[in-house]
TrEMBL record:
Disordered: region residues: 21-43, 79-107
Organism domain of life: Eukaryota
Name listed for the protein in its UniProt record: Transposase
Amino acid sequence: MGHKKHHHKEWITVDTLDKIQERRKKKAATNTSRTRAEKVKSRAEYTEVNKQVKRSFKTGKRKYVEDLAMTAEKAARKGNMRQFYDTTKKLSGNHRKPERPVKSKEGKVITNIEEQRNRWVEHFKKLLNRPVSLNPPNIEAAPTDLPINVGPPTIEEI
């Protein structure tokens, strides 16, 4: 059991996590305050801590991006293109998988969208419009009431 582990973004520092915990405590104090004066005071403290958390997020992300850019520059200077392109992908944030091309029956790539649609129609017509099989499988119906022992378990079962 236990608590669920959270996977944080790479730019979130330990200091930011500490500030988030402090913000949670301030929020709980606001929610449990008994008088209006306490609530106003704890709300002001929460607002200040919330600003600090947001500031910490911004600085952490900015530092993370700058470090990635420096890594990419070093890799480009050294001629390490694999590391350069990997860090460029991280910086761009575009992690979608490329679409697989539609191919004709001969194996040639179809680039025209209308031709791709026609190929899909042809594919599914062939796939779904099969003739009915001449020898249907002989499947016996299962008995409706199966013998189930609901008594205490035996020693062999344990």
